[in-house]
Amino acid sequence: MKWYRLLLISGLLLIVIIAVAKTKVQLERVQVEGIEQFHLDLLTNEESDYLLFYPADIRVNQDATIVKAINENGEIVEEFEIVDDKFRRMFIHQKPTDMDTLYVSLFGEATSDNYYYTFDLQRLSFEKVELDYFSSNVGVQNLEHYGEEVLFDTAVSHKTSEQNIDSDTFSVSLSNATTEQSFETEPDFVPKSAPLLGFQERIIYGLSGRFNQEGHYENAGIGIVDMAKENVTYEDFQLGGQDLYPLYADDDYAYILSEEGTLFVYDREFRYHATYPFHHLPHQDMYYFEGEGTVFLEENKALYLVQSEEDGVTLGLLTFGENPTFQALEKDYIQKDAIYEILYYDHVVNGFIYARKEPTLIC
Prior knowledge:
Elements: E1 5-8, H1 14-20, E2 30-33, E3 50-54, E4 65-70, E5 76-83, E6 90-93, E7 101-106, E8 115-120, E9 125-130, E10 140-142, E11 145-146, E12 151-154, E13 173-176, E14 181-184, E15 196-199, E16 202-206, E17 210-211, E18 217-218, E19 222-226, E20 231-235, E21 244-249, E22 254-258, E23 263-266, E24 272-275, E25 294-298, E26 301-308, E27 312-319, E28 325-328, E29 340-346, E30 352-357, E31 360-362
C-alpha cells in the first residue's frame, strides 16, 4: 500500500500552499459529496505523494473544500472538489496518547455547531463527531486538549445558550465529550486559547486575563475544575498578574508555563514545584505560541519553539518529567530569523514532522 503525506491546511496557511503547489496543465476536478466520502481509493495518479487541503472559505468566495495531490516536485497531478457545507477553515490538534488521530475544530463563520471532526492518519479519512448531549447549540471553540478524554470549551454557556454578558464580564462553558459533562465558567474567568488539561479527574484551563478600569491586569492564572463536585479553584502561583499557559498533562504530572518561562509541575496530589527548563537560554520574548509551537514526538518529549526579538527563534526538544529540560537543536536548516509554525507529527510516513516556515512548507 502506498502511503500519502497529508498536509491539513487551515485558512491561515492558504497563501503558503499556493506558493509551493504548481501545475503545468489545467486539471479537471473530481467532485466529492461530503468530506467523509473522500478516501484513498479516489486517487488514481501514481505520482500523488502529498495531499493539500484548502478548506472552504467565505472570505474568498470558496464554497467547497479543494484537495490537490502533488508529486515530489510540487507539481499538481490530481484535484478534487469536496462539497460539504458543514466543513470550513480549521484548527488541528494532536496529542501523544493518540498519535494516529488529528482533532479538527472549525472557525471563521458566525455559527455555533455541536460537532467536531477527527482525521485518521492511518486511513487518511475524516469522521464527523456529533455532540448530541447538549439541549441547544453551544459551539466548539477550542479543542486543544491533553489527557485520555476529549475536552473543549464552548462559544456560549451550555446552561443559557448565551455568553451571559453583564457589563464587561461574560461566561462560557468547559465540556468533557467523553463523559458528556459540562461546567459553566464564572463571569470573567473564561478560558484563553490554550490547551485544556485532563488531570486527576479535573480540568485545568488558562484564564483569559483582562485590564480593569484602573488599568491593572487581573484574573490571570489558571482554573482547576472538579466536574463531579461542580466547583472551581484558581491559582496564580503568586506571580503578580503573569499570564499562565496550561502546557501538557500525563498520568503523573501537569505542566503550567508562565509568560517568563517558569514551568510549574503539579504531581498527583496537586502539589506543585517550579522548574526552569529555559534557564540556560538568553531571555526570550515568547515562551509560548498559541496552537503552533508544540508537537509531541512521544509521550514525554515534544518539539518546542521559543523566540526572542534579538536572537530569533530557537527550536528544540522539551522533555517532560518531574524536572523538565529543554535542549536546543543546532541544525543548519533552522534559520533564526524565520517564522515557524509546527503543524503535526506523521509517524506513519517515515516519521515526518510538518511545519511551516514563511513562505514555504517543510517536513
